[in-house]
Design a protein that fits this description.
- It contains 21 helices and 3 strands.
- The chain has a 3-stranded mixed sheet, sandwiched between helices.
- With about 500 residues, the protein is mostly helical.
- The N and C termini lie far apart (about 65 Å).
Length: about 500
């Protein structure tokens, strides 16, 4: 057996272990009995530890080292070796006992976060969060290099080459260009009409309708209910999503489903020959978020798609019959100072992420402590959006992310901006508006698969953007899109 086949077989073993762990996680966070979850999380930690042991083992390292000396590798194989070497170098710097302890800490943090949501007492969560922050500070000290220090280390895990400098520039542009428009629109004091309640069984019918038209079917995916919607890609024919249903807000579920389906489609569209290799994943978390935000916003909140889907909404929820297509479009895109990031409109959404970015930067590049998070978060919400959370559930701990990692949040905005750049190019090549109006999403989804999904991790984000759009990352498309859209809606 040659070295590449040896690599493939060993990687397949780690993927099989990760699959088992992922299925346990999906069950534990959705349908598992509450008292069974702790045992499930313990098993997950053991399985994850086993997968890490295999990847850290001498056999795996020797295979990758031998492959790195092989001059006959194909280009995609060279990329695999490059990515695996980077991962080995990172893992080698983290002591095994600390990593295993960290995995258990993450599981405890999630359970404490879940409990805090029901009791509003986040004391147990903050204890676990303090341990998580301490771990990541040590993690940073182990992985720092001359050109990558502090918070940059965590950011780099989710988007290679995009650090504090680049994110500061992006968020400064958002503050300069978007914040004045946000303030002007919020001053209009526009209010959401009372739409009544939306029965859960009808919302579940809408979920099925949405996943069907997006090509996310039960033979390769499934939808369950959880507190915080997420996607878990497991293998080539298995990418699962979750959603949450609110009786008074059908759009919460509608756009959660579209968002998570965007993630799932990316995973299911990967080139099959990359399975059980380092290429069988998205190019980066930002690129992954670009696809989920594309489906959610650039398709889902477009007036043409809303016009297409309105008859289905009327069938399920007769309240929508009293609104025109344009009125419904304006309701769905209403700008408001929302407490919740996941319910925020497109225009204020990047501000929610900016707040979390500033807190993370303060934790790892400044003097911010875990005990400072709540007040800092509330102060920033009041400063930017003019509202102050009433408790930590609608404030600093509404998101699940800080029960596991840091550096992820900024990818939501970077991904949104990448999506706008892709949209600009797509409109040059497809009759985008007509396709949305007809509900014909197949050409749009095929374009995303051909330009982005199929390549997996073969290229870095900028390389992939250049291939798809002809230029590296350019935030002007995102800024222009938001300004033009909301100036038109609000006639300001």
């Amino acid at each position: 057996m040659d070295n590449f086949n040896k690599y493939y077989e060993l990687k397949k073993r780690t993927d099989e272990i990760s699959y088992l762990s992922g299925v346990l996680y999906y069950d534990a966070t959705t349908d598992s009995p509450a008292k069974a979850r702790e045992y499930s999380y313990d098993l997950q930690a053991k399985l994850n530890s086993k997968a890490i042991e295999l990847r850290r083992g001498l056999e795996f390292k020797n295979i990758i080292n031998d492959l790195s000396l092989d001059s006959n590798l194909e280009p995609h194989q060279k990329r695999i070796v490059e990515l695996e070497k980077l991962e080995i170098e990172k893992l080698d710097k983290i002591p095994s006992d600390k990593l295993i302890k960290h995995l258990n800490n993450q599981n405890r943090a999630y359970m404490a976060w879940e409990e805090g949501r029901s009791t509003l007492d986040y004391g147990g969560f903050e204890k676990e969060l303090d341990e998580l922050v301490s771990y990541y500070k040590e993690y940073i000290s182990l992985l720092e290099t001359d050109d990558k220090k502090g918070y940059d280390v965590l950011l780099n895990d989710f988007e290679k080459g995009f650090g504090v400098k680049e994110y500061d520039e992006l968020f400064s542009l958002i503050e300069k260009e978007l914040l004045p428009l946000i303030k002007r629109i919020l001053a209009t004091n526009d209010k959401m009409p009372n739409l009544g309640e939306f029965p859960l069984e009808k919302q579940r019918e809408l979920t099925k309708y949405l996943t069907d038209i997006l090509g996310y079917t039960s033979d390769r995916g499934t939808v369950r209910e959880t507190i915080h919607p997420y996607t878990i890609p497991l293998t080539k024919n298995d990418a699962r999503i979750t959603t949450a249903y609110l009786l008074d807000n059908v759009f919460s579920n509608m756009y959660s489903v579209m968002h998570e389906t965007g993630h799932a489609l990316y995973a299911l569209d990967l080139e099959p020959k990359y399975l059980h290799t380092a290429l069988y994943s998205s190019a980066s978390m930002s690129m992954d978020e670009s696809q989920s935000r594309f489906i959610e916003n650039y398709i889902g909140r477009d007036i043409n798609f809303i016009s297409f889907i309105k008859p289905k909404l009327e069938e399920l929820f007769p309240v929508f019959k009293k609104y025109s297509n344009l009125e419904l479009y304006k309701i769905i895109n209403m700008v408001s100072a929302s407490y919740y990031r996941t319910e925020a409109d497109e225009l204020t959404y990047p501000i929610h992420v900016l707040i979390r970015y500033k807190i993370e930067k303060g934790l790892y590049n400044g003097d911010l402590k875990v005990s400072d998070i709540s007040k800092t978060f509330d102060d920033l919400m009041e400063n930017y959006l003019g509202i102050r959370p009433h408790n930590k559930k609608e404030g600093c701990y509404q998101d699940v992310h800080w029960s596991s990692d840091f550096g992820y949040f900024p990818t939501y905005v970077l991904g949104s901006a990448i999506g706008a750049q892709l949209l600009n190019k797509m409109k040059q090549e497809l009759d985008y508006d007509k396709l949305l109006l007809e509900g014909n999403l197949k050409p749009i989804l095929a374009w995303l698969k051909d330009k982005i999904h199929k390549y997996g991790a073969l290229y870095d984000t900028n390389e992939l953007l250049i291939k798809a759009t002809g230029e590296p990352f350019n935030p002007k498309y995102y800024i222009d899109y938001l300004i033009n859209k909301f100036k038109d809606i609000y006639e300001v």
